[in-house]
Amino acid sequence: MRQTEVIRYSISFKHQVIRELESGRFGNIAEARQHYGINGADTIQNWLGKYGRNHLCSKIVRVEMPDEKNQIRELKKQIRQLKEALGHTQAENVINQAFLKIACEKLGEEVEEFKKKADTQQSEKPVKEEQ
User: What is the pLDDT of residues 52-72, one digit of tens each?
Assistant: First the structure.
């Protein structure tokens, strides 16, 4: 089993890296990581959140109209309902598959053979024209 090396950085080192980033010595976090040989992809980002002024952390600001908030709430509600409906449909499918297996066992047929016969019979039926 291969052991991974864990590197612990002192608080003063973390503050130094953050100060240099905030002062503009490095153009971005990747440059600071490369300069100091810091391997963790989110290490400096976490330090910025904890010790920095947070102006270098990317932020998402969402501006929405009052009706958009209601629309988002409605869409989330619809997603929840659809997930529930899908769950019920999947449960019904499992039950139907079990019933089909039991019925085929009672008829003395394999499920796949029964399905093939049913498909053949279905495709041989003439299509009724609507009037």
Answer: 876 555 667 777 777 887 888
Which residues have C-beta within 8 Å of that of residue 47, sequence separation ≥ 6? 14, 17, 18
When computed from its CA atoms, the radius of gyration of the chain, rounded to whole angstroms, is 31
State the angle between helix axes of 43-51 and 11-23 in degrees (0 to 180), rounded to the nearest 10.
Answer: 90
pLDDT tens readout for residues 104-114: 999 999 999 98
* Cα–Cα–Cα angle for 25, 29, 34, rounded to 5 degrees: 85
- In sequence order, what are the residues at sequence separation of 6 or more whose Cβ sits closer than 8 angstroms to the Cβ of residue 88? none
Helix axes 111-124, 66-107, angle to 10 degrees: 110
Amino acid at 33: R
Q: What residue type is assigned to position 106 of the chain?
A: K
**Which residue matches tokens 């240099």?**
20
* Structure-token pair, residue 10: 């002192």
Amino acid identity at 47: W
